[in-house]
Amino acid sequence: MAAVEYRECLKNQCVAPGFHTVDGCQFFFSGNDPSAVFNCAACSCHRSFHRKNFLKREPERSPSTAESSTSRPRAGGIRRKKELFRRRRRRFTAEQKEKMLACASLLGWRVGWLRAEVESFCEEVGIEEKAFFNWMRNNKRKYETKP
């Protein structure tokens, strides 16, 4: 379990709405009174009004684990989340783009109640509905003609 330290008081002392004023208490001091353990002795606010700071503790290593980690280096290293879950970009062929442009202009760049037609079109062209809707949203301004 991580150690917790309570820092400055963040309670808004201002009466007027839209303003924020704090009392200047810089640290949570627990008093000697056992009935008021969660109240700060300096500002008399509850502990939940003070900023919570989690202290990082290094895990203690036993001599056997420290020895094994130094004897051989780790291969690969740690991967970042961004590298693990990168969004795959869809690439459309020129033929698919032409068909999508024709379909979108027939629909008036809005799907509305024509979901069945869009579904059959997407099966015919070989793309997902979600991909077609994304393409329509991204290319609407580029291709749409104004009356």
UniProtKB/TrEMBL annotation:
One of its GO terms (molecular function) is transcription cis-regulatory region binding. Residues 62-72 have a biased composition (Polar residues). Transmembrane segments: none annotated. It holds the Pfam family ZF-HD_dimer. Residues 56-82 are annotated as: Disordered. Residues 6-53 form the ZF-HD dimerization-type domain. SUPFAM superfamilies: Homeodomain-like. It is found in: Nucleus. Keywords: DNA-binding, Homeobox, Metal-binding, Nucleus, Transcription, Transcription regulation, Zinc, Zinc-finger. One of its GO terms (cellular component) is nucleus. InterPro entries: Homeodomain-like_sf (IPR009057), Homeodomain_ZF_HD (IPR006455), ZF_HD_homeobox_Cys/His_dimer (IPR006456). One of its GO terms (biological process) is regulation of developmental process. Homo- and heterodimer with other ZFHD proteins. Putative transcription factor. This is ZF-HD homeobox protein. It comes from Dendrobium catenatum. The lineage of its organism: Eukaryota, Viridiplantae, Streptophyta, Embryophyta, Tracheophyta.
